[in-house]
Structure to design on (343 residues):
C-alpha cells in the first residue's frame, strides 16, 4: 500500500511524495489518517528554515527521530482508524479510532504502543487537539497558578488559547491576554479571559491594566506566560511581571535569539524565568504524575472545552502548500488549520 506524505523541502517549500508502506510487523498496526492538525509554532519554524540544525527533532517520539534537516517529514497530531494489524496484536484494535504523534501522511505503520485510543464518543476534531491541550496542561503545572493571582498570557495562538481556557477555570483575581490579531483576541475572551489587549509597548499595556483596576497602580502580574513564539515578547513578559513573580516561557524560538535587558527591575525584582516543555514533567511532580495521567486530564479537558470551535480552516492534504502559505502570510486570519484526508 502507498501513503501520501508531506515533506518540508526548503524554506517556504513543501511537497507531497507517494511512498510505499510496509506491511505491519509483529506488534504493529497500519492506520489510515482522517485528520491532522498543523502546529503554527514549530511547523512554521521548519517551513521558514528557522530550526536549529544541530538539534534532535524529538527524542521522545519514535516517528520524529533524527535531526532537523531538509527534506523533513514533520507533524505530531494525527487522528485515524486502524486498518490492518500485525502478528500478536489484539484483534480488538481493528477499526478503532486512534491518535498518534505522526508526521502528516495519509497512512502510516506504527507500533501499537505508539497509538492512543480515542475515548468513546469524543469526536475526531476534538481529539486532534490532544498535543496542544497536553502542552497547555504542562504550562499550568509549571506555572502553578494560585487563588487570587493576577495572570497574563502573551500570545493567543492555539496553545495560548487553550492555556487561557484552562486558567479561566481557576479562581484568579484577573486573567489578561495579549495578541496582535483581533480574531484571536475575540476567541480569548470567549474562552474566559477578562480582557484581551493588543500587544504593544509595556507602558501601554500597563496603563491598560491600571485602567482595568480602577486606576490603581499596577504592581505587576504574579504569573506571566510567554507563548507568542516571538523572542521580543519575552522582554514585555518580564516588564509585566511583579516582584518575585514567575515568567513561564513556553515558546520555542528555534534559531531566533532572544535579547534581554536583565540589568534593571528584573534583577531587583527577584523574578523567576521558568522553561516549560511538554516532553517532560516538572521533577517536583514526577513522584505522582506521569504522561499517562497527564493524557487522561488532557482528554477530560478536551471534552469540557471542545476546542474544535477554534478550527478556522480545513484543507485537503493535496492543498497543504496553500495551508502553509496562509499561515505564513496571513496569520491574523487563522487560529487552527487542519488537513483532511479521503476516507
Amino acid at each position: 500500500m502507498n501513503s501520501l506524505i508531506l515533506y518540508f523541502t526548503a524554506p517556504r517549500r513543501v511537497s507531497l511524495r507517494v511512498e510505499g508502506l510496509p506491511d505491519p510487523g509483529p506488534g504493529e498496526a497500519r492506520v489510515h489518517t482522517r485528520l491532522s492538525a498543523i502546529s503554527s509554532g514549530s511547523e512554521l519554524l521548519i517551513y521558514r528554515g528557522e530550526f536549529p540544525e544541530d538539534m534532535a527533532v524529538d527524542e521522545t517520539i519514535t516517528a520524529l527521530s533524527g535531526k532537523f534537516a531538509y527534506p523533513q517529514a514533520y507533524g505530531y497530531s494525527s487522528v485515524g482508524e486502524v486498518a490492518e494489524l500485525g502478528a500478536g496484536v489484539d484483534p480488538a484494535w481493528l477499526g478503532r479510532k486512534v491518535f498518534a504523534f505522526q508526521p502528516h501522511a495519509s497512512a502510516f505503520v506504527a507500533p501499537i504502543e505508539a497509538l492512543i485510543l480515542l475515548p468513546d464518543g469524543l469526536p475526531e476534531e476534538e481529539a486532534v487537539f490532544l498535543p496542544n491541550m497536553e502542552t497547555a496542561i504542562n504550562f499550568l503545572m509549571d506555572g502553578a497558578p494560585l487563588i487570587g493571582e493576577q495572570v497574563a498570557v502573551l500570545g493567543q495562538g492555539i496553545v495560548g488559547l487553550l492555556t487561557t481556557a484552562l486558567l479561566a477555570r481557576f479562581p484568579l483575581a484577573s486573567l489578561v491576554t495579549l495578541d496582535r490579531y483581533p480574531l484571536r483576541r475575540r476567541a480569548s475572551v470567549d474562552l474566559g479571559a477578562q480582557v484581551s489587549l493588543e500587544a504593544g509597548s509595556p507602558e501601554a499595556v500597563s496603563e491598560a491594566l491600571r485602567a482595568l483596576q480602577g486606576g490603581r497602580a499596577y504592581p505587576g502580574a504574579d504569573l506571566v506566560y510567554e507563548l507568542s513564539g516571538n523572542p521580543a515578547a519575552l522582554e514585555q513578559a518580564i516588564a509585566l511581571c511583579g516582584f518575585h513573580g514567575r515568567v513561564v516561557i513556553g515558546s520555542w524560538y528555534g534559531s531566533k535569539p532572544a535579547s534581554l535587558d536583565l540589568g534593571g527591575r528584573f534583577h531587583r525584582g527577584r523574578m523567576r524565568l521558568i522553561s516549560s516543555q511538554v516532553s517532560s514533567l516538572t521533577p517536583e511532580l514526577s513522584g505522582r504524575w506521569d504522561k499517562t495521567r497527564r493524557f487522561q486530564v488532557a482528554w477530560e479537558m478536551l471534552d469540557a472545552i471542545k476546542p474544535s470551535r477554534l478550527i478556522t480552516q480545513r484543507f485537503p492534504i493535496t492543498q497543504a502548500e496553500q495551508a502553509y502559505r496562509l499561515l505564513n502570510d496571513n496569520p491574523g486570519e487563522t487560529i487552527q488549520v487542519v488537513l483532511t484526508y479521503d476516507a
Summary: The longest strand covers residues 28-37. The mean pLDDT is 89. The first helix runs from residue 42 to 48.
